[in-house]
Amino acid sequence: MSRGREQWGSKFGFIMAAAGSAVGLGNIWRFPYLTGVSGGGIFVVLYLILVAAIGMPIMLAEMAIGRGGGLNAVGSFRKLKGGLWPMVGWAGVVAGFVILSFYGVVAGWTVAYMFKSFGPLMSMAAAGGAAEAFQTFTNDYVQVIAYQGAFMLATIWIVYNGVGGGIERYCKVMMPSLYIILAILMVRSLTLEGAMKGVEFYLKPDISKLTARTVMGALGQAFFSLSIGMGCMITYGSYLSDRESLPSSVFIVTVMNVAVAILVGFVIFPAVFAFNMEPSSGPGLIFVTLPAVFARMPMGSLFSFLFFTLLFFAAVTSSVSLLEVCVAYMKDEFRWDRGRAAWIIGLACFLLGIPSALSLGDHFPRVFGMDFLGAMDFLSSNVLLPLGGIFISVFAGWSWFEGARQEVRRGGALPKPLETFWVLACRILAPIAVAWVFVGNFR
Ligand code: PFF
User: Fold this and answer.
1) Going by CA atoms, what residue is nearest to atom 9 of ligand 1?
2) Which residues line ligand 1 (CB under 6 A)?
3) Which CATH architecture has domain 11-441?
């Protein structure tokens, strides 16, 4: 490892930070709306299978590359192998930058809705005007950009404070709080009259809804929600000591991540069905449908505030990981100091995010038939992350195989059958499956 490099203070801190990165808007905003539009239970089952069969092996490969290389995503590839491999890391840094630009926008809506929970939003939503309220909000450019800016400032501040003093410190508080809020909301939702119809929609897989599209959606979601395919886990792994076991870290982080996605479904669908709303309303699900649901509950403002606070915690512990990928790159490769890197890249991300922030307004031009935010999401989640995933698994499974295997065994090995599965997944399963999905996206 390079001298004087920052490190996590404890394994607990690392797990909270890595789980904080994984658990985010992807679990609470994207997962429920994708489940809603993809027919419920069947999407959930596919997601779980893909997380276990492809997601976990790639996450293990990433952490091994990061700890083995001891540098940022680009530097680790260069140090371990060189050649063209650093380009994989470089694509990851670009992906991090692009994701953070629109992530800050959606997270900004979340901050706005925390405050709006106590404003006229609830009475508008009670009168059937939640969609209109959301539209008015996204057309108010000053507000949208101000909230995006505020969220980006919080992200920059945490990253500026460093790996231990910033990221780890905040994740250690926010992640446990998130589970507590989630538990409170779940009890509330499941005890509503008519909740069981939602549980049924959510848990009963309807095999007739299984299409190639559903599989692709579920794989993209597995990548996005596990924070894999762009060197985030490489960067976080590079701050981890040799004493810790990588497989057990991957296992805990994945379980924590999947738990949030699954439990959030138990908050959203029972409530949506109890109040006869539509589960398949798309990206607006939580900003349009949920306020309408909260507005009709006793103490709805409070539950709405709790929900959007939960989402804010989840979002900021992920956005810091996106920024850290870029900051680590500038620090290691160009000797920038942390503060300078955090501020300059954070501000640049904010500026790139402005078209996304404006794009949900009524007058903003569309790109390739999508709104700008949707186009950025597509470019990163459906193009850059899967491509990154293919190369990362090929790197660990073939090019740097012996090194990767040693690194995975250091600090606590996998049982033999699981190790064999990991090797097979990196060598064959992941590259082929992901390539298939990747090509399918463009059909
Ligand atoms: N996993 C995050 C989420 O589910 O919201 C998003 C994300 C963070 C993707 C970090 C990629 C990444 F490197």
Assistant:
1) 227
2) 21-22, 24-27, 96, 99, 224-225, 227, 230, 232, 318, 321-322
3) Orthogonal Bundle (1.10)
